[in-house]
């Protein structure tokens, strides 16, 4: 546990973090993360964060060493997609019970599970995730993984990030440390070239990476490893031979990018593939980094030609939506890289941003938002559900873009809502993704259902006077009985 504590301290003391660099030596050792409070892991614990980063590695067996519920709660927690292997969609767990804990059978059960996975599936590697229970009872995960790797002749990687260590973001970083310690650099590729890059922090949600990769292919740029979206184990093992790297989500894997630059001289920059301008800028910076690392400068010209072609196509498609969406107000309740990249993307077509959440955003993210919006009054760290509801019910926004957790606030306020987080069903990256994002916003805002649900209910309408036909004695008697039972007054039926 002392080694794990030292690793956590190293992760917290992140030199690449501008906020951390500005502190004195004592404050820097305390790290960038806020101390946890009871219930702080409700949005995701360290184990959950590690699983998010590593599970999209598609050909690896992911074995959770703990009770069944830990695997059940963490399975399919991201809408990542695979272009080939499906092993990552299979749940593997040691399913510890109270009897296993009392009898001390955890390590033996883990070793047996590794053997069964090796014999039944033959994966290139097995990732083992300890949980709170197995960490508290003291199972030596690293020793078991090392012995199993020697006996069965395949990499068995311990991902030491039990849930009680801290937040989901800490688990993201510990997963990067596991890749750095046990995977990256373990295989030497025989086809390394001057146009190889890594993309870090791209999860291929709804297949977004597949909208970006064709652009790089047209430029002759090969993605040596996309970590973790649609990744393969041996691609990540060879990632140390890339010439440059793009980091999409710095809050998750900035420690991995920095240490790869220190060890293997792989320069990196933070970019975004959300929005036309940001996509073009990311392609330019990739080409420029490759040229600095020895690639032919002619790639810069080819990049500009590609950008001009793709931008012309995208703007032509977006022109049809501008009259319908220009001036519409959007409330963006997300965080991280999307807090500024999506803002820039929407403003390009004339949409007004009335607020954007900066939860989980870095200092650099917040500075970008200030530059884009020219006003930090539209930034909020965290808005309570009551405040969100009040803002939407007062019609201060025409649509809210957020994750699934806050969709019911928008629906209760009778306001259009669009999923922008990991549960979304449509890819929004790249030039085509930007067009798709605008199309989905247009469909949501102009859906006729909103006009209908905002109309007053029939029972809230004023009663209308109408002439009644004469009733027979039996009809009159029946009407009195019904009125007495329902507690209503005789006469007219209301209509809107």
Task: Give a concise summary.
By secondary structure, the chain is of the alpha/beta class. The chain contains 23 helices and 13 strands.
Descriptive tags:
Rossmann fold, disordered C terminus, 3 domains, Nitrogenase iron-molybdenum cofactor biosynthesis protein NifE, 496 residues, 11% strand, globular
Provide structural commentary.
The protein has 496 residues and is an alpha/beta fold. The protein starts with a helix and ends in a 10-residue tail after the last helix. Helices cover 47% and strands 11% of the residues. The chain contains 23 helices and 13 strands. β5 (196-202), α11 and β6 form a beta-alpha-beta unit. The strands form three sheets. It has a five-stranded parallel beta sheet. A four-stranded parallel beta sheet has the order 2-1-3-4, sandwiched between helices. A four-stranded parallel beta sheet has the order 6-5-7-8, with helices on both faces. α17 (338-347) runs parallel beside α18. It folds into three domains: 39-174, Rossmann fold, CATH 3.40.50.1980; 196-318, Nitrogenase MoFe cofactor biosynthesis protein NifE, C-terminal (Rossmann fold, 3-Layer(aba) Sandwich); 328-452, Rossmann fold. The model is unreliable at 488-496 (pLDDT under 50). It comes from Mesorhizobium australicum. This is Nitrogenase iron-molybdenum cofactor biosynthesis protein NifE.
